[in-house]
Amino acid sequence: MGIAGAKPAAAVARRPVTPEWGLLGPVQDLSSLSWLETGIHQSRPFRLAPDPSLSLLAHYLAPAQNHVAEWRSFFRGEYGFSSWQPRFSLSWGLTAEAPEPEALSVSMRGPCPKWRAPRPVMLARYDGGERTTLPLLDCDGGVAPDAIDVVSVLSRAPGVARPELPLPFEPSADAGPGEWLPHVKLVDPRLIWVLSQVAQAFPRRALYIMSGYRENGHTGLHGKAKAIDLFVHGVSNEQLFSLCRSLRDVGCGFYPNNKFVHVDVRPYGTGRVLWVDDSQPGTPSHYLDGFEGVLEPGRAWVPQ
Fold first, then answer.
1. 259: closest CA among 234, 221, 230, 279?
2. Where are the beta strands (DSSP E) in 158-212?
3. Which residues of 145-158 are buried (b: 16+ CB within 10 A; e: fewer)?
4. Digit-coded pLDDT (tens) for 105-156
């Protein structure tokens, strides 16, 4: 016989376990990543700190910066101020066995104020009617999420089918040398910054990528995904070229008989490389020493 008022064992087993509560909320098992997991569960934004452990991400965190000055390198280096600041560390202080949080280059990020929020930019491909609107930079001036993927897909080689977004985390096994997918190469992060400068100078204008990555043995900057032939709706090539020539370590090509301006990014110290090519579409290049109202004589780069 059962005891009056007793519940079956199965019913007891199905009863949800009530978490233990402390002064700051439910008590959880501690681990070396508890501080990070808790923040993720609470939808707290994090940022990667640009310290020496993340040197490979420097171009993505600060695409406008093409070079770190020697004095800045010293202060940020192994013996600079950054070495005096301890990494993120907490002492739980509960038991001797409680783990220490892992020393990751991660810090909390506050919300972006509206006045600093980047304005979305309309980008389009010259053929097929592909277009999208998204921010190119984040609130801190770094490359915005998905910007590299979107611009790289819009800049893919001619005649290549549009791949799905987002791009995979690793390069495809059948991709060509330096490519991420077959016929798709990731654009240089600083090229994203150049596009953002164009969008800022000409707000609410669509940016058309006429030509980006070129394959088949192309050895120029187009073949390295560091160049784009750009057209801005409602903006003359003269205006676009004038803006381009104001940027340092950037190449600018003016083509009076075409509908685009060539823009590319170059190593630190290159300065401004300017040229004029008045050739007709589909014909060999014909460089000029200058062009009235656009580039003064003697300022143009003329290949020998």
1. 230
2. 207-211
3. eebbbbbbbbbbbe
4. 555 566 788 888 889 999 999 887 899 999 999 988 889 989 999 999 999 9
Task: Say which range, 18-32, 59-73, 131-145, 251-265, has the weakest mean pLDDT.
Answer: 18-32
Tokens standing for 58? 């420097």
Compute, in degrees rounded to 10, the torsion defined by CA atoms 185, 191, 196, 198.
-110
Q: List, as one string, the DSSP characters of 252-294.
A: EEE-TTSS-EEEEE--TT--EEEEEE-PPTTS---EES-BTTT
Domain boundaries, the chain: 28-108, 114-288
Rounded CA separation 257/73 (Å) = 45
- The tens digit of pLDDT for each residue in 147-193 reads 999 999 999 988 899 999 999 999 999 998 899 999 999 999 999 99
Which position has the higher pLDDT, 122 or 300? 122
In 3D, which of 33, 36, 59, 31 has the Cα closest to residue 47? 36
- Contact residues for 102 (Cβ-Cβ < 8 A; gap 6+): 32, 33
Q: Which two tokens stand for residue 11?
A: 């019913």
Cα(93)–Cα(101) distance, integer angstroms: 12
List 287's β-bridge partners, or say none. Answer: 277
Q: Which two tokens stand for residue 76?
A: 């940020």
230 closest CA partner among 253, 200, 203, 249: 253
pTM for this entry:
0.72
For residues 213 and 225, the answer to whether their CB atoms sit within 8 Å is: yes
Q: Beta strands of 76-147 (E only): which ranges?
A: 106-108, 121-125, 131-134
Percentage with pLDDT > 70 across the chain: 65
Contact at 8 Å (CB) between 199 and 136? yes
